[in-house]
Each structure stands twice: as C-alpha cells, then as structure tokens.
Amino acid sequence: MALMASWTGPGTPTDSQNKSNCYAVKDVTDGLPGAVLIPEETSSSAEEVKRAISQNIRWQVAADRKIGALKSFQGYMWQGGYESGEIRSIVYDDVVPALNRWRDAGVKIYIYSSGSVPAQKLLFGYSDKGNLLEYFSGYYDTGIGLKTEPQSYRNIAKDIGKETTPFSVLFVSDNVKGAFILAQELYCIWIRLPSQDHQIAAAQEVGFRVAVSERAGNAELTEDERARFPVVRSFEQIFEHEALQ
Question: Compositional bias of type Polar residues: which residue ranges (predicted)?
C-alpha cells in the first residue's frame, strides 16, 4: 500500500498528516459520524499513527471531502499508480481534436480543479490519449479560492489578463452543479468540479459566459437549466453553437 511505502517528504503521508490534524480535531469535536482523530507521533507509535491516517483518509474519501490535505495525499497515491502504468485517465474522443483546434486558433488553455496542481498534471500527463500537458498554459487549484465563490473566478480572470473582459471566458460544465470548465476566444480554462457545488452560478456572476456539456451518464438537466444555459453534447458543438459564438 502506498501509505506504507514512504512516510516522509513533501506530499507524503507524514506531510498530509501535519495538514490534516487540525481538520481531524475539528471533525471529532463537531461530532461528525465516523471522524477519526490522528494522534501525535510524539505520544503514539508510528503504526498507530499510520492506522489512524489510513482510517481518516478512507473516511474523508467516503465523505467526498475537498480539503487540501486529502487532495495532496490523493496526488501522492495517484503518482505511483500513473507512473507504474496501473492508472490511465480516460479522455473523451472529441477532446483532443478540440484542444488542437483551440491551440491552432491561438487559444490558451488552463486547468482549475479541486485536485492539487500535481494531481492535475498526473491526470493529463497519463491519459489514454497520451501526454496532454503540452496543450495547457497553466494550472489552478483551490489555492486560488473555492470554486463556489465568485471571487475565485475574478482571481483567475485577473491572473490570465482577462480582469476587464471576463465575457471572453466561456465556462462549460458537464453538470450545472459541477464538472468541466472551458474558456474560449483568447483564453480557455478547463476546470474539473465536484458534483455538489455551484460553480456555474459563481462564474456567471463574475461575467463569464457559461454553457453545459451534456454527457451520457451525467445527472439529468432540468427544464429550467436547459432554458438558462446553452447545452452542448460534445466539444465540437462548442464551436457550432450559435449562442457561444
């Protein structure tokens, strides 16, 4: 198990433990069901600490937590899987042609994800379509701000030089409550979002244009959502949709 394979260094279990302790104490204090307190190494054996961290991580994953310490550990875990060839991310067939088309048109592509920047690079560096990192000009994680807060999108717009022209950014999600975000014209942002959040509304409030990417297996869109946002069923349709031109 990767948890036992290495125990020190940036991004490894010990580093994640240091970041997680304050969350664990608060979770236990707040009485969250199943929350596991991580003991201090000075007062507990290494095996007890490892066992507690393992239990805490499993609980956080089951609860779909979005804290940085968990994302850091997940990135550490994934690195071993990707590098060994055990894991390959799956990319829709229409994605790479769209990335090529945007790049040929001078569009810069960025990623914004709840996962850490290292985890993002693993996802796109080890895909079933090959290494896609060459397409992206930069990466953002929750260090730029929470994805449900409009200020996060203002921060991104400022960072990519679109602070005064946010309307030139197109926010596309495969679920109104979360998934992937893209931007077109001068800049393109590809953002992976968790399913329970409301980033579409946050991005729209800032002035980003928005659209919904409808994929097989996604949550059904309501009639209100279909009326509020342009809907596309492939990246190719982003280029063709009248409302997105």
Answer: 9-20
